[in-house]
Amino acid sequence: MDPRYDIPRRATAGGSGGSANSSPAMGPQSRRRKMPPRPADFKLQIIIIGSRGVGKTSLMERYTDDTFCEACKSTVGVDFKIKTVELREKKIRLQIWDTAGQERFNSITSAYYRGAKGIVLVYDITKQETFDDLPKWMKMIDKYASEEAELLLVGNKLDCEADRVVSRQQGERFASRISGMRFCEASAKDNFNVDEIFLKLVDDILSKMPLEVPNKALSNSVLSLQPEPEVPPELPPPRMRCC
Amino acid sequence: MDNNQGSKESSDRTELVSEDGKNTKSVLCQRCGSKVLCPAMAVFTETELFLPSMRKKSSLSTTEGSVDGDNLTAHWLVDDMYTFENVGFTNDVGRIKYLICADCEIGPIGWHCLDDKKKFYIALDRVNHA
Questions:
Q1: In a mutagenesis test of the A interface, which of B32, B50, B56 is the best target, namely the one with the most A β-carbons within 10 Å?
Q2: Looking at the complex, does the CB of residue B40 fall below 8 Å from at least one CB of chain A?
Q3: Interface touch B85/A72, C-beta < 8 Å
Q4: pLDDT profile of chain A (243 residues), mean per 10
Q5: Which GO terms of type biological process are on file (chain B) (predicted)?
Q6: pTM (2 decimals)?
């Protein structure tokens, strides 16, 4: 619950430059935008990252069955979602980006990271390699994300306890080494802890915000339907396999 | 599309649309009940848009390569995506993003064209009102 950061969280955060206060997130487009009649109190962008097959997409779904529109689900795919949660008597709109299909470390554009107020980093408790990949994801976060972004590590597939290879303690230990990173285990399949994940993250984000922030300051982190397709500059070569 | 209930539809419609042209009721997913829009957040509009079928099987069975679907004219229109309570956006299909239920992902329930960033449509026929 402690929102303070005692240890410098990102020792390697050389690349992003600039002070922590200047948000690089707003594009020219958001400045031009007129304020709509306030539909919500806060708007927050959250991204879900992690190696292939860890269940990122299912964290966004309440349940699954086979009646999905084929055109939407399999062929076209979901780009992002708007979800609303209510917390502390505020209505909060979350724009949630699922990066499934872009799991190579260098293929998620920096635009995804830049505006994110919350980052959910997911691994699969039954697949060691997805846990071993975490440091590489952290490098991407260090490089591109705002230092103020809330981080949450999620060990997914708790429903497959019998096949577990990553202990809860390992996950906890990893998260504890990164200042401010929270940890939990979840099962998207059983919907265990999934709603809590988002509420927890949002609560953390809100607790770092002064309550009377002008709406403007919060609303301009997002809004581009097309994250610029820029290739992240000078990435460390991704020498590890990604899945 | 069933058009065997035209009169019923139009009487329903007057119940759904307020005097100032807004939705009197909440807009919900037909399958899971997820709330898409709160009352009075969207404006009724008539414009013909093609939405692929919601049913998996029929969307696969195509007539000469064309996607099975409906030309729908009655829509709820909002000008900011953050007006929605819950909604999902598909990846781009040409310049179109289809709108789907954020929770169960059924859809398409709506339509957005990247060339007009201030128009997000939800088809009345593809949602429930309560």
A1: B56
A2: no
A3: no
A4: 42 40 44 49 89 80 45 63 88 84 62 88 95 94 91 91 95 93 85 78 84 49 42 42 41
A5: post-Golgi vesicle-mediated transport; protein transport; small GTPase-mediated signal transduction
A6: 0.71
